[in-house]
Design brief:
This protein is of the alpha+beta class. The protein contains 3 helices and 3 strands.
C-alpha cells in the first residue's frame, strides 16, 4: 500500500470512529422513528440531531450547511432491514 492509500485508509477509519456515537444513536432510536419517518433520511453529526429529510440529497446539503466539509456527519435512511 502506498502512502496516499495508507493515509486515505487512516482517514476513513478515523471518520468511522468519530461517527460511532451517531451510529449507535441511530440504531437505538430507529424503531421509534419508523412509524412517522419510514423511508426518510436522518442527519446526525457531532452528537447533534440534524433532522429528517425526504431525500438523501436534501440531507447531504443540510449536513454540509450544518457541519461543513471537514467535520464528518452521518446520513442514514430509516427502513426495516430484511431478515
Amino acid at each position: 500500500m502506498n502512502d496516499a492509500q495508507n493515509n486515505s485508509e487512516i482517514l476513513r477509519r478515523h471518520k468511522a470512529v468519530q461517527l460511532s456515537d451517531e451510529r449507535a444513536f441511530f440504531q437505538q432510536h430507529k424503531l421509534e422513528w419508523m412509524a412517522e419517518h419510514r423511508g426518510e433520511f436522518i442527519l446526525l453529526g457531532k452528537q447533534v440531531f440534524g433532522g429528517f429529510y425526504k431525500t438523501h440529497g436534501e440531507a447531504m446539503k443540510a449536513g454540509i450547511r450544518m457541519f461543513g466539509l471537514v467535520s464528518p456527519f452521518l446520513v442514514e435512511q430509516i427502513f426495516e432491514e430484511e431478515m
